[in-house]
Each structure stands twice: as C-alpha cells, then as structure tokens.
Amino acid sequence: MPNSPSLELTLSALRNQMRQALNRSLGEQGIALSPPQTQLLQLVASHSGICAKALAERTGRDKATITRMLGPLLAEGHILRSADPADGRRQCLSLSASGQQLAEACIKARRQVHETVFSPLSEAEKVQVATLLEKCLNR
User: Fold this and answer.
1) Measuring CA to CA, which of 59, 83, 114, 124 is 20 to 30 A from 92?
2) Which segments constitute the HTH marR-type domain (predicted)?
C-alpha cells in the first residue's frame, strides 16, 4: 500500500507529540521531571512495594536505566526504599507523602495528555488500539 501511513513514523510522531505535551503540562505545574520519571511515580503509586526489576519489566527499560531515573526521586525523598522482607537483597519502593502528592499531579497530567491525544477515537477504538499494542508488547 504505497499511500498508507508508516506505522513506525506514525508511532514515533505520536510518542513525540505526547512527550512534548506532557513536558509542557509538567512545566506549567512547576514539576521538573521527565515523562519517564512520571511513569515511575505512577507505577510506584499503583504498586507500592514494587522493585526496580519489576519497574524495568513494566516499562521496557533496563534495570540500570531505572536505577538512574530513580536516583533523583530517592534523593529528593519522593520515593522510599526498604528491604524486601521475603528477600533482603531486594529493595521495595514506595512513595513518601511528598511523593504521593507529586504522583497525583503527574498522573493527572499524563491522563490529560492521553485524553487529548486519543480524543478523536471512540471508546471502542481506544480499547482496540490498547489491545493491539498489548499484543505487540506480549509477542
């Protein structure tokens, strides 16, 4: 199909558009975090006690990258680290009170960006897109 849009280019452009919109939204709120850091906050908020390895698996990033991204969040006290009671070698992550407030603001900003970007789609189409993307992730 010579006139069909390139999936690669379309996904790349959409990702860039979403990242720019999220950066703008975060900046307007005075939040100096990268979109991937907001994703980590969102995951820790919804999975208290999650470890860095699980964050890496859920985000598709390597553990070293996750560790680097967590550094400032830990240093600023937004994310707390504690030993896993089942395996003392592993660290469990949770949010502090300031981390919870920051996560709520980030989740709201992320949700608004997604709602805007996907507003042309019906609810059924959104489910279909999500299902197809999950299929690709779980290959």
Assistant:
1) 114
2) 4-138
